[in-house]
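Re-running the complex after MR caught last week's input typo. The corrected sequence lines follow. Everything else is unchanged.
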Amino acid sequence: MNENKKRLRRSMMFMNCQRPGLIKDAYIYRPDSIMFDLEDAVSINQKDAARYSLYHTLREVDYQGIERVVRINGLDTEFWKEDVRVCVAGGADAIRIAKTERADDVRQVEAAVEAAEKEFNRPAGSTLLMAAIESARGVMNALEICEASDRLFGIALSGGDYTKDLQTTMSKSGIEMMGARHLLIIAARAAGVQCFDTVYLDLDDMDGFRREVEMDKQLGFDGKSIINPRQIEIVHQVYTPTEREIIFAEKVVHEIEDKRSKGIGVFVVDGRMIDIAFYDGAIKTLAMARAAGVYE
Amino acid sequence: MEIKRSAIAGTLESSDAQVLIEPAAEGVEIDLVSSVMNQYGRQIRQVVLETLERLDIKNVHVSVTDKGALDCTLKARVEAAAFRAVDQMNDIPWGGAVR
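Corrected-run output:
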């Protein structure tokens, strides 16, 4: 398995490949992932030009360990196959499939990626996939999408197109997306992949943004798609475990490992009943704390 | 690569460059206007020339309006204009002539 499949992805920031001024130094903002956009942000007559910018950016700019994901055009367009070729040739870490509705969509892209890895002498399996869910059908097929490929590290809700398909609009409360949010997280967890929430569009309402990120974390999302560097710090703050959470997680890990050797399955830590089901969560809390630089 | 028609790529935004490629009877001719002409004019011209060489373009007139583009952006704009000029949108030689 590609060891990057489970990496930390709290913040995935969109960057328009049509604008070299934006993508040349996006790494300075330190999101966990940058999503170079060849799809909606790029006008229809600039799809080709955006690819050349993307290729040289991928090859020549040092993103200092930040994951480089590329959102390719939908499978219903004439663009996506060349998008896949340039992503793989450039050495992108992952490809985000737009408007994914069924497992076959993932398999189609997977086949194109496999062919491109051979064509450009890239290591087999080095290009990961993620799927954007943007329709009611995509939501209903989330589990088969999650299980369609070993390369797939996660799924993401794309709120704009999804609410259009629902025949409603994105609201501040996000109530219209709650069903999809729950279903996607459940499907992702069932399949053992990650799950990411949609963007928050109002850049003037940072309090509202923080509330939504707090909700995302509580719902179980691994991270959030973002559209502006100003949103990164809030996401990272919300996803950084508190001192109390870190101390508790340390105790849980220690006690589970200790009790396991003594043949004890259930025990109490700080007044809470703990068993093996808490182990992965505690390990994840410590990993998040480590990534945020607040725990060694 | 033989340039058959005129084509343009890029914008006049900061950190970008606009590149116009036109057919020419013989040789490579480059007209360059840059916001950083004094510091980087020679380097920009060199990047454009090397990109044209990699694409095997021998007869061409290139007009570059540079707004402080990095080398990677300059290359990208020359390549985009060149492949538009020969109407090639797919099967681009990534890692070959484009590198």
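None of the earlier attempt is carried over here. Strands of chain A lie at 11-16, 33-37, 67-71, 94-97, 128-133, 152-157, 194-197, 223-226, 267-269, 272-274. DSSP finds twelve helices and ten strands in chain A.
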